[in-house]
Amino acid sequence: MSTSSWSSTEDFEEAQYISRRNNNTLRWIALGLEILGGVLVTAVAVYLRLAHFQPPAEDLNWKLLCNDMSLYEKQTTNDNSIMLYVIILAVPSVFIFFGEVEFALLSKKSYFENMDKMERMGRNLPRMIRIYAMFFIGIMLASFSSDYIKIMIASPRPYFLTIYGSNCPLAFNGTKTDDFYEALKSFPSHLSCVAGFTCVFAIGYAHKVRAQSSTPLLTPIMTQGFLVLAVTTSLDRYTSHFNHTSDILAGLLLGLVLALYTSNLLLFVLKLRSKSNDYSRWLNFLDFMIPRVSMPPTYSAEAMNARTTNPQINSQQ
Q1: CA 201 to CA 203: how far, in whole Å?
Q2: Which pairs with CB-CB distance under 8 Å and at least 24 residues apart come from 164-173?
Q3: How far apart are CA 218 and CA 106, in angstroms?
């Protein structure tokens, strides 16, 4: 081999090495930015949840508020919010875990060939971490969004005047406690927002991410189950007089929008594509597909061009 051939080969290998090194550097930078963004979102969400921020109560029309009869509901002594939070966080998390175990053990992907069970689980670990990271960040976004709206709107809870309305509106001129400001954070329902996000995210995972070949009937069953779970946990806030109906509906809607966005972003992160050539719709993971009607072959553009350009067909007509 000539000297010029050796030099060109060495230059090519060196260029490949530099390209791989640059790609690895960019991946580490992107991973660092992702982790930093997740930590910031988590910190802000936890701070808004635990800190006692004071809503702008001075802007409320106290005279009009004192005549609102819907704010004289009796406050319940049984607060099931902790148990409900555990349920709406644990059930989707366990479902995703078993879905990923099923995918690792039963998938027929080429990169799983000639691997035993433990090797398959290790090979699928980065994908599982990605899914749980998107799930966790989505929960933090739902928590941050609902708490921020609560502080800005300062909507009274249904029991507000039952506790603080004995000398309304003169009673609101004195020093106000943290419980007083907490009673002004009704809209939207934080529990409903988180429940709407976790359950709809799990539905999106069941439809478009989880491998359905082994247990196809599990997907519709879990879809109905997660919808029922989101509604029933949210209704507890109404029966306990912690939130109004509008608060619950707004929380569910906010969680639904965030779940739609996060679920479709997850498809992009995992590089999952539809098998059809049709473009992907924003709501496609719920399978809300509208049937399409194709033009009959006799009236297609190709047929019309053939009829106009073929002299024999025109002469016969």
Answers
A1: 5
A2: 165/66, 165/71, 165/72, 168/62, 168/65, 168/66, 169/62, 169/63, 169/65, 169/66, 172/57, 172/62
A3: 15
**pTM of the model as a whole:** 0.76
| Residue 27 backbone class (left: φ over 0; alpha: ψ -120 to 50; beta: rest) | alpha
Q: What is the mean pLDDT of the chain?
A: 77
Using one digit for the tens of pLDDT, what is the confidence trace for 111-140? 778 888 888 888 888 889 889 999 999 999
User: What is the distance between the terminal CA atoms of the chain, rounded to a whole angstrom?
Assistant: 71
Task: Indicate the DSSP class of residue 280.
Answer: P
3-state secondary structure of 159: coil
Q: How far apart are the C-alpha atoms of 219 and 137, rounded to whole Å? A: 24
Token digits of residue 129:
């971490």
Q: What angle in degrees, to the nearest 10, is found between the helix axes of 190-208 and 81-106?
A: 10
Closest alpha carbon to 79 in 230, 191, 229, 227: 191
